[in-house]
Amino acid sequence: MLEVVDLECARGDRQLFSGLCFTLEPGELLHLHGHNGSGKTTLMRTLCGLIRPSAGEIRWGGESITEVEDDFCRDLVYVGHKNGIKDDLNGVENLRIACVLDGVPISEAAAWEALERIGLRGHEDLPARVLSQGQKRRVSLARLLAHKARLWILDEPFTALDKAAVEFLQSVVREHVANGGMVILTTHQEVSLTRGQVKQLQLGWKGEGDV
Amino acid sequence: MLEVVDLECARGDRQLFSGLCFTLEPGELLHLHGHNGSGKTTLMRTLCGLIRPSAGEIRWGGESITEVEDDFCRDLVYVGHKNGIKDDLNGVENLRIACVLDGVPISEAAAWEALERIGLRGHEDLPARVLSQGQKRRVSLARLLAHKARLWILDEPFTALDKAAVEFLQSVVREHVANGGMVILTTHQEVSLTRGQVKQLQLGWKGEGDV
Amino acid sequence: MSVAEFFDMGGYALYVWGSFGMTALLMGIEPFLVRGRRQVVIKRVARILRMNTEGKR
Amino acid sequence: MSNRLINWFKFASPATFYPLAEKIWRWSTLIAVVLIAVGLYMSFFVAPTDYKQGEGYRIIFVHVPAAWLSMFIYLVMAFWSVVGLVYNTRLSAMMTSALAPTGAIFTFIALWTGAFWGKPMWGTWWVWDARLTSELILLFLYLGFIALQGAIDDTRRADRAGALLVLVGVVNIPIIHYSVKWWNTLHQGASVSVSSGSSMSSIMLWTMLIMALGFWAYSIAMAMARVRCIILERERDTTWVSELPEVRQ
Amino acid sequence: MFEAFRAILMRDLTLALRRRSDIFTTLFFFVIVVSLFPLGIGPELEILRMIAPGVFWVAALLASMLALERLFSIDFDDGALEQMLLAPQPMFILVLGKVLAHWLITGLPLVVMAPLLGVQYDLSTTALSVLLVTLLMGTPALSLIGAIGAALTLGLRGGGIMVSLLVLPLCIPVLIFGAGAVEASVSGLGEAGHLYMLAAILVLSVLFAPLATSAALRISAE
Amino acid sequence: MFEAFRAILMRDLTLALRRRSDIFTTLFFFVIVVSLFPLGIGPELEILRMIAPGVFWVAALLASMLALERLFSIDFDDGALEQMLLAPQPMFILVLGKVLAHWLITGLPLVVMAPLLGVQYDLSTTALSVLLVTLLMGTPALSLIGAIGAALTLGLRGGGIMVSLLVLPLCIPVLIFGAGAVEASVSGLGEAGHLYMLAAILVLSVLFAPLATSAALRISAE
Ligand code: HEM
Ligand SMILES: Nc1ncnc2c1ncn2[C@@H]1O[C@H](COP(=O)(O)OP(=O)(O)OP(=O)(O)O)[C@@H](O)[C@H]1O
Ligand SMILES: Nc1ncnc2c1ncn2[C@@H]1O[C@H](COP(=O)(O)OP(=O)(O)OP(=O)(O)O)[C@@H](O)[C@H]1O
Ligand SMILES: [Mg+2]
Ligand SMILES: [Mg+2]
């Protein structure tokens, strides 16, 4: 469904990767590997259409994502390094606005429920400013529960989460894949995601022994 | 050396922990555990003196840290959730300024070397703005190499780091402990820190099954 | 027409020469600025080149 | 058709354009020197004294060409910006940034000479009149473009942001040109127009045209010289640059 | 689509109400600049009446310029901007929502205050109403045009000054027609021409500025 | 200790030079506000000379108020502030370094420009030099006092307006003596008394403001 053809990306005056090709079918998970600075975030943002590749093409359902932009965005959830939540709004407000922007408004009750499921019971109506690091991350991840886009692009989703939350998020990801969703994720932690088809992709071999 | 007596902390209208007592001798490492929002960050910031505890006392070499503040700060390195580096300065500048503030100025050559050791070769003079998440984290952790304070307080130091860097940092921590340093750290990742004396401290038992 | 008359420009000397002068000044300086920039660039490229060849050795 | 396209893309590559630019630069420098010399001679010794304005009108021979070019260069920049945004060619952005300083200089000259002409003619250096204001805005647009490009480190972002700014500002050009028609202003109306011939004496007109052509050739020369610097700067890591004679010695 | 527009609008208004600073700083600034003149000059009504249009418009321009820098930068820093870019709605709708919120927060209070402050300048009721109308049409145009500059300079070194440098030239026409209309009405000439021009600028900027802004945001968010 | 002071000072200056916006926005603002008046009022030198002291001082006050909000907030957001609090140096030294850098960036350019702008107002050389001296003593005091407000309102909702509300009353004495000195010298009365008062304010604020500021920062960083 997602096809990447001959992708090349450069930042500053450095080429991060080139000639990258892969496809991702429904029910598949792509696990990106690579050392710090190897270009994982750059690749993910490129796949979302936030960065224009210096060469190559990304296709969604056979068509270039620049042409079917709106459809592609409707099918996509991207969670990046930044949480994208507003410090002055509380969890429920943050979640509901995120869902409206994603094109699938949810009711207040549904928002409360999603936040409760992701482990924020009792913190739903605190302004995000006072939440702990992991709690903020949970607010931004709650979108994954609230509505189901087909393609999830998750950039180190497990940072700041405690073990129970990592476990829970993994089960959510597994379930999504089992239901025919697609997931691209990267993480430096050991995780067990072996349900459905897992593909691995390694970026930046040469520099791997960097430290 | 570090003694904590009957410490109690409250945030908002909620009490996070109370009656907390422990001591930490040279050559010991304290590993804090706890689910998201259990108060690990709060405890660490309290130990640094950034937050005033609502009750209890923290002693450094037998005296309350509020009395020997300057000495205590000289012996302390705190790395928090925020990297504390300036986006417009490059790695070398960031590191050197951090060291001057810590009271142990280092030469430019030493800064380059520390950054190289922590795996930033070729990125030392890029503005932090363009670095990847893990590279930023490395810049802020380079202080640990550049000078040796006796007490390190590290709040999730491994986030955003790749495996090689986690490995390297663990060896740095082990070595510090072996040389009679003290470390307090928290992380949600599995790490092997068994050299010297490792103490464990669990915060927020009751809520552990939160998710 | 005498030289003095020519330079007087019928009483408009300040205006006419002010205009032509500024024009000549700017259009005269610009080529030199560009040349300076070119020299800087060439020096820089040459330095990078030297660095690269030395690095390979 | 496709053949011609390929041809174009060949010239759109910096490596092939670099030597071509040198040739263009040589020729246009030569043409500029000759035309400006002839134009200057004509403007002081051939063109007759104006019956109304006396000798002061001779400012026209720098004012009008500079004003024309200030607008024309902006239009060319806008053209390259569109090409750059649509076809994503590298050369077009380089052309845009190579043209900007020259455009800014001509805009400044138009303002300066206009002010020096306005003082004797209208009795004031400056009025907030539509044409003068819009020309001043043009100068700010050029400066803004240059500053914006200077502030962005990433060249690709600089190119695209600059192109967008140029396109946003392009509304200003028709405003400059038609301002004398749309508002009643102090400034002269169009005295050279294609349809109705010219209201000026033909010798004056010819002088102005020769000067304008000279300025035009000068702009091309400057743009080519500058684009060569920019190409070198941006392509410094490529092999073809490292094989150039000028960087090897 | 309208849902998303409304959501962004409400979000920004809520945030502004929670923070409040943004509303007050611009308003406060406008009030101070405008009130300073009569205090400084003393009560010669003739002069005051003459300079009033210029003072009001320059103050309005400066005030809206000041508020611009933060229009997108907070969203940029906390990652909300990239989420907006990835929303399956046309970006210019969201931009329009943000700009509208921005105008409601910084522009509208200023428009409302203007007639009150105008009394200090001994402006006639007609002149006051013309002032009100010009501000009502002009300040949204300023916000819309300013948004382009704010988007282009997002995250740049030298952000603040760059915004002014890029945006001021584009805003000068608004200033000229705005002040011109009030002047024309004070001096008894017809103000209709100026008002039409202002309206035209407003319409054009509603149509094109959000498009340019969203293109600029896309470039800056890379 | 001096090392740390110098390091903070140099760091903030470097950052300002890299970003540049901060220098120019305040300066730009000051120049525009000051130049607007002659343009608006016309060239009656009598009036201009009379209002000059007030205009300059109010513009300086507004300009330094505008820049205050960002004095600590960036450090707060990126975590540099907590590192400063944990440095084994007395915090007020670091605060002094930051405020000095802030003044060099926003205050000094303004002081330097003032005499140039003063010429527009037809001020005599004596008056100009008195203006220079008062600004040279007054603007650091404004920065120092303003820092307290900026520290107190760090991370609060409604930061901007709070700063103004807290700081303005404290700054008014500076304004009064500063403008008073220039006025006294324009009208030929002695300006010495006013200058002494300004100097006293400056000394007091150098002594106490950094202490108050660092206490406030400690509270806000919790
Ligand atoms: C600062 C003041 C002035 C500025 C910024 C200015 C600007 C311009 C511009 C931009 C044009 C080109 C218009 C076009 O081709 O569409 C132009 C043309 C011209 N200007 Fe000026 N001008 C100024 C003062 C004057 C004065 C004082 C005079 C004469 C009294 C003058 C006479 C002319 C003439 C004769 C043309 C050619 C008109 C045409 O063919 O369209 N200008 N000026
Ligand atoms: N303007 C620039 N100039 C030079 N290098 C740049 C520039 N922008 C980005 N880079 C480099 O490009 C790389 C981008 O890395 P990216 O953020 O994609 O890494 P990542 O794989 O996500 O790393 P991490 O695991 O640390 O998140 C980094 O090495 C960074 O230093
Ligand atoms: N003003 C406040 N009102 C209510 N609760 C607050 C307030 N400030 C902080 N808290 C709560 O106090 C706790 C602070 O957690 P802290 O940041 O110390 O957690 P942590 O153990 O570091 O978590 P993490 O693993 O996610 O980093 C959170 O549960 C937070 O919601
Ligand atoms: Mg990354
Ligand atoms: Mg924490």
From TrEMBL, chains A, B:
SUPFAM superfamilies: P-loop containing nucleoside triphosphate hydrolases. Residues 2-211 form the ABC transporter domain. GO terms for molecular function: ATP binding; ATP hydrolysis activity; transmembrane transporter activity. Keywords: ATP-binding, Cytochrome c-type biogenesis, Membrane, Nucleotide-binding, Translocase, Transport. Gene3D superfamilies: P-loop containing nucleotide triphosphate hydrolases. One of its GO terms (biological process) is cytochrome complex assembly. It holds the Pfam family ABC_tran. PANTHER family: ABC TRANSPORTER I FAMILY MEMBER 1. NCBIfam families: ccmA, PRK13538.1. This is Heme ABC transporter ATP-binding protein CcmA.
UniProtKB/TrEMBL annotation, chain C:
The chain crosses the membrane at residues 12-34. One of its GO terms (cellular component) is plasma membrane. It is found in: Cell inner membrane. The keyword Transmembrane helix applies. Keywords: Cell inner membrane, Cell membrane, Cytochrome c-type biogenesis, Membrane, Transmembrane, Transmembrane helix, Transport. Belongs to the CcmD/CycX/HelD family. Required for the export of heme to the periplasm for the biogenesis of c-type cytochromes. This is Heme exporter protein D.
Automatic annotation (TrEMBL), chain D:
Residues 23-187 form the Cytochrome c assembly protein domain. InterPro entries: Cyt_c_assembly (IPR002541), Cyt_c_biogenesis_CcmC (IPR003557), Cyt_c_biogenesis_CcsA/CcmC (IPR045062). The keyword Hydrolase does not apply. Its main location: membrane. It is a multi-pass membrane protein. The chain crosses the membrane at residues 27-47, 67-87, 99-118, 130-152, 164-183, 203-225. It comes from the Bacteria. One of its GO terms (biological process) is cytochrome complex assembly. One of its GO terms (molecular function) is heme transmembrane transporter activity. GO terms for cellular component: plasma membrane. Keywords: Cell inner membrane, Cell membrane, Cytochrome c-type biogenesis, Membrane, Transmembrane, Transmembrane helix, Transport. It is found in: Cell inner membrane; Membrane. PANTHER family: CYTOCHROME B_B6 PROTEIN-RELATED, HEME EXPORTER PROTEIN C. Required for the export of heme to the periplasm for the biogenesis of c-type cytochromes. Belongs to the CcmC/CycZ/HelC family. This is Heme exporter protein C. It comes from Candidatus Sedimenticola endophacoides. The gene is ccmC.
Automatic annotation (TrEMBL), chains E, F:
One of its GO terms (biological process) is cytochrome complex assembly. The chain crosses the membrane at residues 21-41, 47-68, 91-116, 128-154, 161-182, 194-217. Required for the export of heme to the periplasm for the biogenesis of c-type cytochromes. Belongs to the CcmB/CycW/HelB family. GO terms for cellular component: plasma membrane. InterPro entries: Cyt_c_biogenesis_CcmB, Cyt_c_CcmB_bac. It is found in: Cell inner membrane. Keywords: Cell inner membrane, Cell membrane, Cytochrome c-type biogenesis, Membrane, Transmembrane, Transmembrane helix, Transport. This is Heme exporter protein B. It is a multi-pass membrane protein. It comes from Candidatus Sedimenticola endophacoides. GO terms for molecular function: heme transmembrane transporter activity. Pfam families: CcmB.
